[in-house]
Amino acid sequence: MNELLQHTSLRNLSDLCVSAIDLSLVQFKPQRRRVRPRRAEKSGFRYYAVNAIIVGVIAFMPLFVTQQCAAQRVVDKMVATVSAGVKTDLITYSDLVWQLALQPDTPLDNPTSEDLNRALRLLIDQRLILQEAEKLPTINPTPKEISDARDELAKNFASVSDFQQRLMRVGLTSVKLDEIIEQRLKMEKYLDFRFRSFVVISQAEIAGYYKDVYIPRLKARSPGRVTPTLEEAKSEIERTLTEAKIESDTDAFLDTARERAEIVILNPI
Length: 269
What we know:
The chain contains nine helices and three strands, in the order ααββαααααααβ. The chain has 269 residues and is mainly α. Helix 4 packs across helix 7 (174-194), helix 5 (143-154) packs across helix 7 (174-194) and helix 8 crosses helix 9.
């Protein structure tokens, strides 16, 4: 399983190489001092012995650096980039697997191309919404909202233990999970701000839905059940129609955003 992108730095290794080279230059610098003839041979031996050690260290450093680079090579795979004109977001294979892990009953062992591509399409849409949402700093969720949303997410699984085990299997840390939840809350707040505030459901729409959809569906699902009056079902119908309009407006927004955005698939999955 691919782990989280590991960002490594060779600055320490580079500094070590520079230090070793500087040391060698100091050792090779000619020393102008008088020495007694009897000790010249001994001093010369020490001089070449010390420098031979330094040269060996310098010769070994490239191999050491190469081995360190190989050991710290990024394991993750870049899948796609998404840019709506403000910034460019990278989607990795880990992002896809994390998305699958947060979906109950979705297999994590050898995920299918269909599941991965479904997750990719969802993440592309999320990135497009998030890039717009981040233009409004006032929609940042509070720590309590993030904590409550995390608890609600865990309820979708068989148990908290099962939820935590899925996270561990894909290397999704608690810090990264909170980051994902925070992004989701930002998107929800943005969609509410952009669409929900402007949704208006007329009485005619409620009455039409009650007659054409609500009653026939209720009779088909629960034959013999007492049918609620229009007034009794009004609040439920209004919520249903509101959510449907928000979903429709969101789909239209995403269609336009996809057309304008630059979406690049780096590695087909």
